[in-house]
Design goal:
Layout lengths: L1 H20 L12 E4 L2 E4 L4 E9 L6 E8 L5 E3 L2 E6 L4 E9 L5 E12 L2 E13 L1
Parallel strand pairs: 2-9
Antiparallel strand pairs: 1-3, 3-7, 4-6, 4-8, 5-7, 8-9
Length: about 130
């Protein structure tokens, strides 16, 4: 009990610092600003797949969101990045065509890096691509 009592003020200070330093993301119960569909797919070596990235605006004002995909070597996206205007607390969607490596691979990760307005939220969603 003494240890819990001693740690309580430290925990409260960490919470205060977290609230002060990190943006109020406002991404709702899920806590993520984006999702990619399909989440998992299989593509022939050297083939292509279309992914749709749905993004959320966590702010109470209209904002432009930018989505860039982080991909492994040998994969390319068209377009390389995409912007979408989103209403306050609304959602928008962008589409990418992913050209995969000619080499077989399992569970290759593609991630959506999200910036809304001037705030970069980083990688907020992933999709897994099997190349076989």
């Amino acid at each position: 009990r003494d240890a819990v009592a001693a740690l309580a003020p430290i925990g409260e200070r960490v919470r205060e610092l977290h609230d002060a330093l990190l943006p109020d993301e406002g991404f709702g119960e899920e806590g993520f600003g984006a999702r990619i569909e399909p989440y998992r797919c299989t593509v022939e070596p050297g083939g292509a797949v279309e992914l749709e990235v749905t993004v959320r605006n966590p702010f109470a004002r209209a904002e432009r969101a930018r989505v860039e995909l982080a991909m492994p070597p040998g994969f390319t996206a068209s377009p390389e990045s995409e912007d979408v205007e989103i209403s306050p607390h609304g959602e928008g969607a962008v589409r990418f065509v992913i050209h995969v490596s000619p080499e077989p691979a399992r569970r290759t990760r593609v991630a959506a890096d999200l910036t809304v307005g001037d705030v970069r939220f980083g990688e907020q969603a992933e999709a897994l691509i099997d190349v076989e």
